[in-house]
Amino acid sequence: MAVGSTVREDPNLHRNIETAGGVVTFRAIGLGLAMVLAINVWISTSDYLIHSSSLQLSHFPIGLLAVFLVALFLNGTVRRFRPGAALQEAELLTILAMGFVGAILPTHGITGFLMGVLGSFYYHATPENQWAHYLHHKVPQWAIPSNEHGAMTFFFEGLPEGRGIPYEVWLGPMCWWLAFLVGLGVVFFCIAVILHRQWVHHERLLYPLAAVGTCLALRSPGRILPDALRGGHFWAGFCLSFGSVCWNILGYFSPMVPRIPVGGPFQWTVFVRGFPRIHTRLNLYTMGFAYFASLNILFSIWFFFVIFWVESGILNRVGFVIGRHGGNFSVDTAVAAWQGFGALTVLVCWGLWTARFHLKEVFASAFGKAETDDSGELLSYRAAVFGLIGGLIFVVSFLYRLGIPGKFLAVMVPALVINYLAVARIVAETGLIYMRTTVTEQYVALFAVGTRSLLPGDLTGMSLTYSLVCQGKGIFMTPFTHAVRIADFFREHRRRLAPAIALVVVVGLLADLFFTARLGYAHGASNFSTYPFSYAGPWVFNYTVSMIRDPFYASWERTSVFAVGAAIMSLLTALHYRFPGWPLHPIGFPVSFAWTTQLAVFSIFVVWGIKSVILRTGGVLMYRRWQPFFLGILAGWSLGVALSFVVDAVWFPGQGHYVHGW
Q: Which parts of the sequence belong to the DUF6785 domain (predicted)?
């Protein structure tokens, strides 16, 4: 086994779940949908009302893991007393796959930004910011909820007593945006299906997030609980993380209790003046997943971050800049943003080139020129290819009707695909749960085209697309690739998972939009005190007005930095594939530029050190022996965060404690 093996490579995981008699059942689909709705209500309540932990920021939301663990323990109890009524392993994994998709929808995922940005368009307009002069008469009215009769004012400030919720002002715009989201979902689900065989069977990516979830669900015959939830190592890790949270909860009631420095607010450290700060607070959630990544990837991430840190510090000291900042959804400097995007572009293009023979088979099968076995996929290759084409046509048509010109879309849409596909690839290969893009696709197109050639209406239409920025997580792409990977454990009825995922997307979005609207009109969305409702909208439209008032040409400086990043990534990729013993994995280079790497690099460095010692002293056997310990850390931390939420809801509503977030 390779040094970087994950749970997926454990022999116990090679047995097919069908041997236990489980299939994708309608019972599991119903329970999965119910679990997603419960998770979304919990996440929204925690963020908007209790102001406790942020449960949805990662690619494996901690709210999902906590609820899934509770389901595992409850299922074990049912199995003990009524074995025939207990869920089989495949049913648990069906629920997990649906949860991966559904848990990305609320708050900082999709609906928070969608309602926060679009709702801000009229509510936050003032004579000083001049939105009415520059933007309001340029926007397509079908895309924005109106402020007729104070509908947006009441949404942000609360509804007067005796007034009904004006759902009608949201209905039309949300139907169009939901259609656009479904179109995006079709595109990225089809891409996930098309690339599935290449990533899993040809390149053998590790999928640490899916591997952890799968390991938690698998159970030996005759056992009540899954194998991962038993044993001394698991409970040692569980007690360590759960006990840390419980101890800190005591501090909620008495300031005399010293706090254990895990979780909580940011803890930045500046090691050298003028150099980027580094987050030095341990994140047990990051550490738990990082243990299952390859050792050379962990090393490469922190090594390239050090290089990035030195480069940024030197450029800061000499005062080298290439123009205005890329905005709140890109990394801090334009140099890092474009260098990172160049590296991400090479990562995606190289991956597609590597998959060229597989892609040729897929498209040949879709157009009837060859026979390719696609029975193991969630969609036939014909459906996937034509779904991809049809979805892209709809997405581009929607954006064009929004007012975005064709030359802008010619850059923005490919940049969108590169960003989302790169994030999904990195998460599937590294297990980085907080990975983000280095720069938004809007920012790429703005400086590739230049705003001097764009009309105010073009920029206004573009600004509305920030309502789906999803903090650079890639919206559906990452959860879809993991759901498709989990489907490998089914042999019969696996294609039932595709409509189940579609059901989660549609019902989950509708339910969360409805719930968020009710909370907004009941409590005032301004009181949510979250980024999507308090800051995202004002920044987006202020930034748009600034570009209208101060237009600029296409930036050759950024293009040059993009080329430098692409060239370095190409060299690292060539060295990686040409020399098998080359110690640096090229994927660490683009990861180093992501702003979330600043938050995670210290925890990754600690895990790299621990895993290095384990492998050097005990080899692969000791590495496997300590896997349950890190699973226990994840389980204990997630249930500890859930307990902290309960304490906040009972004793500190509206003044909760930030235990878990970035």
A: 25-524
Out of 209-218, 510-519, 578-587, give the one with best mean pLDDT.
510-519
- Return the closest-CA partner of residue 591 out of 354, 440, 423: 423
pLDDT of 264 higher than 90: no
DSSP 8-state symbol, 662: -
Q: Which tokens hold the place of 508?
A: 């989950």
* Domain-embedded: residue 661: no
The pLDDT assigned to 18 comes to 40
User: Does any domain span residue 357?
Assistant: yes
- 447-464 burial, b at 16+ Cβ within 10 Å, e below that, comes to bbbebeebebbbbbbbbb
Place of tokens 């997405």: 395
- The amino acid present at 576, given as its one-letter code, is H
**610 domain-assigned:** yes
Are 231 and 239 a contacting pair, CB within 8 Å? Answer: no
What is the spatial distance between Cα 355 and Cα 155, in angstroms, rounded to a whole number?
Answer: 48
Residue 535 lies in a domain: yes
Tokens of 333: 């400097």
Closest CA to 561 of 476, 447, 450: 447
- pLDDT 10s digits, 501-514: 999 999 999 999 99
584: left (phi over 0), alpha (psi -120 to 50) or beta: beta
CA angle 225, 429, 414 (to 5 degrees): 130
Mean pLDDT score, 464-472: 89
Q: Which domain holds residue 178?
A: 7-651
> In sequence order, what DSSP letters do the residues of 324-338 get, joined into one string?
S---TTS-SSHHHHH
Rounded-to-integer distance, Cα 506 and Cα 501, Å: 9
Structural domains in the chain (count): 1
3-state secondary structure of 268: strand
Please, are residues 71 and 39 in contact by the beta-carbon 8 Å criterion? no
- What is the arithmetic mean of pLDDT over 321-348? 85
Q: What is the dihedral of CA 397, 398, 401, 406, to 10 degrees?
A: -50
Sequence-distant (6+) residues with CB within 8 A of 360 are none
Element (H, E) at 481: helix 477-486
